[in-house]
Every structure is written in structure tokens, then in C-alpha cells.
Amino acid sequence: MAPSARPIPRAFSYHWGSGSVVEEAAYTAQHHEPAVQLLEYEEGEAAGSWAVRFCFYNLDGRFQRSPLMVGEDELDGLRAALARTPRLRALLRRLVEEA
Length: 99
Description:
Layout: E1 10-14, E2 17-26, E3 33-44, E4 50-57, E5 63-64, H1 75-82, H2 86-96
Antiparallel strand pairs: 1-2, 2-3, 3-4, 4-5
């Protein structure tokens, strides 16, 4: 199932810095929409840096502030979504591959 339409880039804000979600891999599963996002900080303590956020949205498209839980049945959908996010995919590859 296709994920909810959210514009890229779009703003985010934390107390230590704010910026834009510049890439997002999301998949609409049975109970939620898991997402992996590339965040680029533009202001605050973290300005000029990036982060990878693992998060999810409910099926109404609202961001949820709970831990992301991904089941085995959701891996293929997330993998397909990551195919459209080259920078994010490269960063995750660094996380799982040996140097």
C-alpha cells in the first residue's frame, strides 16, 4: 500500500535544533506506517549536521511519538521505499556493513 503523501522537504523541530526532512522511506502496513527519515539540521546546536530518524505514523497520517516496531512482514515494503532514497539508503548501508 502506498504511504500517505507528505511533502519533501518539510520542516521538523527539536529543542536542540531544527531543519528539514529531506528524504523519507515509508510503507503503509496493516496497523501503522513505518518510516525512516533523513533529517538535515539548519539551525541550533546541530546546524550543519544530519540524523536518521526511525519513526511511524498512524493510518490517519499523524506522527506518533512511540518506538518504531517493524515486523518481518513489513521489511519488503520498507526496502522498496528505501530504493527511492539514495542518501538514506547509503547511510543505512554504513550501519549494517563492515568497513
